[in-house]
Write a structure and sequence with these properties.
heterodimer; A: mainly beta; 7-stranded mixed sheet; globular; B: mainly beta
Protein backbone atom coordinates (compact mmCIF):
# COMPACT_ATOMS: atom_id res chain seq x y z
CA UNK A 1 0.00 0.00 0.00
CA UNK A 2 1.29 3.44 -0.92
CA UNK A 3 1.91 5.65 2.08
CA UNK A 4 3.21 9.20 2.24
CA UNK A 5 3.88 10.87 5.56
CA UNK A 6 4.74 14.56 5.74
CA UNK A 7 6.39 16.28 8.68
CA UNK A 8 8.15 19.50 9.56
CA UNK A 9 5.29 21.95 9.58
CA UNK A 10 4.77 24.48 12.33
CA UNK A 11 4.37 28.12 13.28
CA UNK A 12 7.09 30.48 12.08
CA UNK A 13 7.47 34.23 11.74
CA UNK A 14 7.64 36.02 8.38
CA UNK A 15 11.12 35.80 6.90
CA UNK A 16 12.02 32.60 8.70
CA UNK A 17 12.74 29.16 7.20
CA UNK A 18 11.24 25.70 7.49
CA UNK A 19 12.09 22.32 6.01
CA UNK A 20 9.35 19.85 5.18
CA UNK A 21 9.91 16.12 4.69
CA UNK A 22 7.82 13.38 3.15
CA UNK A 23 8.69 9.75 3.77
CA UNK A 24 7.36 7.27 1.24
CA UNK A 25 6.62 3.56 1.45
CA UNK A 26 4.81 0.89 -0.53
CA UNK A 27 6.23 1.71 -3.95
CA UNK A 28 9.54 2.10 -5.79
CA UNK A 29 10.18 5.70 -4.79
CA UNK A 30 12.95 6.40 -7.29
CA UNK A 31 10.67 5.50 -10.20
CA UNK A 32 8.17 8.25 -9.45
CA UNK A 33 8.16 11.97 -10.00
CA UNK A 34 6.96 13.77 -6.90
CA UNK A 35 5.35 17.08 -6.11
CA UNK A 36 4.37 19.38 -3.29
CA UNK A 37 0.86 20.80 -3.43
CA UNK A 38 -0.52 23.19 -0.83
CA UNK A 39 -4.07 23.91 0.17
CA UNK A 40 -5.72 26.79 1.97
CA UNK A 41 -9.43 27.18 2.73
CA UNK A 42 -9.65 30.38 0.77
CA UNK A 43 -7.50 29.53 -2.24
CA UNK A 44 -8.05 25.84 -2.81
CA UNK A 45 -5.28 23.74 -4.30
CA UNK A 46 -2.01 25.28 -5.44
CA UNK A 47 0.83 23.31 -6.98
CA UNK A 48 4.15 24.33 -5.42
CA UNK A 49 6.99 22.28 -6.84
CA UNK A 50 7.87 19.08 -8.66
CA UNK A 51 10.92 16.88 -9.07
CA UNK A 52 11.73 14.03 -11.43
CA UNK A 53 12.38 10.51 -10.21
CA UNK A 54 16.13 10.91 -10.50
CA UNK A 55 16.09 14.39 -8.99
CA UNK A 56 17.74 15.90 -12.06
CA UNK A 57 14.78 18.09 -13.01
CA UNK A 58 12.94 20.48 -10.73
CA UNK A 59 10.06 22.89 -11.29
CA UNK A 60 8.52 25.65 -9.20
CA UNK A 61 5.44 27.82 -9.06
CA UNK A 62 6.20 31.47 -9.70
CA UNK A 63 5.03 32.31 -6.18
CA UNK A 64 7.83 30.28 -4.56
CA UNK A 65 10.60 30.41 -7.15
CA UNK A 66 13.85 31.57 -5.59
CA UNK A 67 12.60 30.92 -2.05
CA UNK A 68 11.77 27.20 -2.00
CA UNK A 69 13.98 24.25 -2.99
CA UNK A 70 12.72 20.75 -3.64
CA UNK A 71 15.00 17.74 -3.30
CA UNK A 72 14.86 14.01 -2.79
CA UNK A 73 16.95 11.23 -1.31
CA UNK A 74 16.01 8.04 -3.11
CA UNK A 75 18.08 5.88 -0.78
CA UNK A 76 15.99 7.13 2.14
CA UNK A 77 12.74 7.35 0.14
CA UNK A 78 12.37 10.92 1.28
CA UNK A 79 11.16 14.06 -0.46
CA UNK A 80 12.04 17.45 1.02
CA UNK A 81 11.02 21.07 0.62
CA UNK A 82 13.30 23.77 1.98
CA UNK A 83 11.27 26.94 2.45
CA UNK A 84 13.10 30.21 3.01
CA UNK A 85 11.89 33.80 3.37
CA UNK A 86 8.46 32.61 4.35
CA UNK A 87 5.52 34.96 3.94
CA UNK A 88 2.03 35.05 5.41
CA UNK A 89 0.56 33.86 2.12
CA UNK A 90 2.63 30.66 2.35
CA UNK A 91 0.34 29.58 5.19
CA UNK A 92 -1.29 26.33 4.09
CA UNK A 93 -1.40 22.59 4.50
CA UNK A 94 1.42 21.15 2.40
CA UNK A 95 0.88 17.75 0.78
CA UNK A 96 3.39 15.59 -1.01
CA UNK A 97 2.02 13.62 -3.92
CA UNK A 98 3.18 11.14 -6.52
CA UNK A 99 2.91 12.02 -10.19
CA UNK A 100 1.98 9.13 -12.48
CA UNK A 101 1.30 8.97 -16.18
CA UNK A 102 -2.32 8.57 -17.16
CA UNK A 103 -2.76 8.54 -20.92
CA UNK A 104 -0.71 11.51 -22.08
CA UNK A 105 -0.72 13.30 -18.75
CA UNK A 106 1.35 13.14 -15.58
CA UNK A 107 -1.11 13.57 -12.74
CA UNK A 108 -1.25 13.46 -8.96
CA UNK A 109 -2.14 9.97 -7.80
CA UNK A 110 -1.34 9.34 -4.18
CA UNK A 111 -1.33 12.10 -1.58
CA UNK A 112 -0.13 12.40 1.97
CA UNK A 113 -2.40 13.86 4.64
CA UNK A 114 -0.33 17.01 4.78
CA UNK A 115 1.55 19.13 7.29
CA UNK A 116 0.35 22.58 8.37
CA UNK A 117 2.62 25.57 7.90
CA UNK A 118 1.55 28.79 9.58
CA UNK A 119 3.47 32.00 8.94
CA UNK A 120 2.50 34.71 11.38
CA UNK A 121 4.07 37.26 13.66
CA UNK B 1 0.90 30.95 -16.24
CA UNK B 2 -2.31 29.31 -17.43
CA UNK B 3 -5.26 30.42 -15.33
CA UNK B 4 -8.15 28.00 -14.94
CA UNK B 5 -11.52 29.53 -14.13
CA UNK B 6 -14.21 27.24 -12.80
CA UNK B 7 -17.92 28.01 -12.76
CA UNK B 8 -20.14 28.10 -10.94
CA UNK B 9 -18.40 28.42 -7.59
CA UNK B 10 -21.28 26.55 -5.95
CA UNK B 11 -23.88 24.25 -7.47
CA UNK B 12 -26.92 23.40 -5.35
CA UNK B 13 -28.65 20.28 -6.61
CA UNK B 14 -30.69 17.34 -5.38
CA UNK B 15 -29.70 13.66 -5.59
CA UNK B 16 -30.63 12.28 -8.99
CA UNK B 17 -30.14 15.59 -10.78
CA UNK B 18 -27.57 16.26 -13.46
CA UNK B 19 -24.53 18.37 -12.59
CA UNK B 20 -22.60 20.34 -15.19
CA UNK B 21 -19.32 21.95 -14.13
CA UNK B 22 -17.26 24.24 -16.32
CA UNK B 23 -13.53 24.94 -16.50
CA UNK B 24 -12.10 27.59 -18.81
CA UNK B 25 -8.38 28.00 -19.50
CA UNK B 26 -6.75 31.34 -20.24
CA UNK B 27 -4.94 29.71 -23.16
CA UNK B 28 -5.11 26.36 -24.89
CA UNK B 29 -4.14 23.31 -22.85
CA UNK B 30 -4.98 20.93 -25.70
CA UNK B 31 -6.55 17.97 -23.88
CA UNK B 32 -4.16 18.01 -20.91
CA UNK B 33 -6.96 18.68 -18.48
CA UNK B 34 -7.91 16.59 -15.47
CA UNK B 35 -10.68 16.67 -12.89
CA UNK B 36 -10.33 15.84 -9.20
CA UNK B 37 -12.93 15.32 -6.51
CA UNK B 38 -12.25 16.26 -2.91
CA UNK B 39 -14.34 15.51 0.15
CA UNK B 40 -13.79 17.13 3.57
CA UNK B 41 -10.78 15.74 5.35
CA UNK B 42 -9.68 13.69 2.35
CA UNK B 43 -7.05 14.04 -0.34
CA UNK B 44 -8.19 14.84 -3.87
CA UNK B 45 -9.14 11.86 -6.02
CA UNK B 46 -8.47 11.73 -9.74
CA UNK B 47 -11.69 11.38 -11.75
CA UNK B 48 -10.92 12.32 -15.35
CA UNK B 49 -7.65 12.61 -17.29
CA UNK B 50 -6.87 13.81 -20.81
CA UNK B 51 -10.17 15.74 -20.68
CA UNK B 52 -12.46 12.79 -21.24
CA UNK B 53 -10.99 9.55 -19.87
CA UNK B 54 -12.27 8.15 -16.60
CA UNK B 55 -9.61 7.07 -14.13
CA UNK B 56 -9.61 3.53 -12.81
CA UNK B 57 -12.65 2.74 -10.69
CA UNK B 58 -14.56 5.93 -11.49
CA UNK B 59 -18.28 5.31 -12.13
CA UNK B 60 -19.70 5.86 -15.60
CA UNK B 61 -21.95 8.68 -14.36
CA UNK B 62 -18.86 10.89 -14.44
CA UNK B 63 -17.87 12.16 -17.87
CA UNK B 64 -15.58 14.85 -19.18
CA UNK B 65 -15.50 16.72 -22.44
CA UNK B 66 -13.77 19.60 -24.18
CA UNK B 67 -10.45 20.59 -25.63
CA UNK B 68 -8.41 23.73 -26.05
CA UNK B 69 -9.80 26.21 -23.54
CA UNK B 70 -13.29 25.00 -22.61
CA UNK B 71 -13.98 21.87 -20.60
CA UNK B 72 -16.96 20.31 -18.86
CA UNK B 73 -17.37 17.71 -16.15
CA UNK B 74 -20.82 16.14 -16.11
CA UNK B 75 -22.31 13.96 -13.40
CA UNK B 76 -25.32 12.39 -15.04
CA UNK B 77 -27.29 11.57 -11.90
CA UNK B 78 -25.98 12.74 -8.54
CA UNK B 79 -25.47 10.13 -5.86
CA UNK B 80 -25.24 11.15 -2.18
CA UNK B 81 -21.48 10.48 -2.20
CA UNK B 82 -20.93 12.90 -5.10
CA UNK B 83 -21.50 16.03 -3.03
CA UNK B 84 -17.98 17.42 -2.80
CA UNK B 85 -15.62 20.00 -4.28
CA UNK B 86 -14.36 19.48 -7.81
CA UNK B 87 -11.14 20.93 -9.20
CA UNK B 88 -9.86 21.06 -12.75
CA UNK B 89 -6.10 20.88 -13.31
CA UNK B 90 -3.88 21.47 -16.34
CA UNK B 91 -0.62 19.66 -16.91
CA UNK B 92 -0.03 21.09 -20.39
CA UNK B 93 2.87 23.24 -19.29
CA UNK B 94 4.73 24.62 -16.30
CA UNK B 95 3.72 25.92 -13.87
CA UNK B 96 1.00 23.40 -13.22
CA UNK B 97 -2.24 25.05 -12.16
CA UNK B 98 -5.59 24.23 -10.62
CA UNK B 99 -8.94 25.90 -10.95
CA UNK B 100 -10.53 27.50 -7.92
CA UNK B 101 -13.01 24.66 -7.47
CA UNK B 102 -16.75 24.11 -7.72
CA UNK B 103 -18.61 22.96 -4.64
CA UNK B 104 -21.53 20.66 -5.39
CA UNK B 105 -23.86 20.87 -2.41
CA UNK B 106 -27.17 19.31 -1.51
CA UNK B 107 -30.11 21.54 -2.26
Amino acid sequence: EVYLLESGGGLVQPGESLRLSCVASGFTFSSYAMSWVRQTPGKGLEWVSAISGSGDSTYYADSVKGRFTISRDNSQKTLSLQMNSLRADDTAVYHCATRTKHGRSFLFDFWGQGTLVTVSS
Amino acid sequence: EIVLTQSPATLSLSPGERATLSCRASQSVSSYLAWYQQKPGQAPRLLIYDASNRATGIPARFSGSGSGTDFTLTISSLEPEDFAVYYCHQCYNWPLTFGGGTKVEIK
